Amino acid sequence: KMEKKFKKCNYLSFNHDYSCFSVATSSGFKIYNSSPLKLIVERDLEGSLEMASMLYRCNIVGLVGGGTYPKYSPNKLILWDDLLSKVTGEITHISKIVCFKLRKDIIAVSLEEKVMVYNMTDLELIRSHETRENTFGVLSLNTKGEEPILAMLGIKRGFAKVAFVKSNKEVDIEC
């Protein structure tokens, strides 16, 4: 009797309006409609993913490799176009990606001691922010409004940093 091999769930992420959520698995990714709960996309990429997150409710999905047999390097953010079923962009770092957030105009990537901010259209680096050690990927990004606002760990223990991307302002707040 053959035993069914179960896929491992490595990451779960709701989209911006919570209408869908993505699942990074040991063999690719899945996207579910939230209500009614229904599987709408399943992609077997023949390799494991550490993270998967969709941009709003469109065909762009951010992917980071990891797990037992990684499809991509854990230091590379892949932009996957599910309509075209192919990679349409990638950003490579010298260290492991611990978190990323997508917005229509920017991408924020958290490394263990830095947050990098990129322009969504051309993937050019806009700026970077130093943080203290952040192995858990503590990072948040607003999804509405003209001004992208990031919240991340500060440099000093017990502080968070709020960064206003367009106006290039940073404010440290005590936790």
Automatic annotation (TrEMBL):
UniProt keyword annotation of Repeat present: yes
Keyword terms of this UniProt record: Repeat, WD repeat
Protein name: Uncharacterized protein
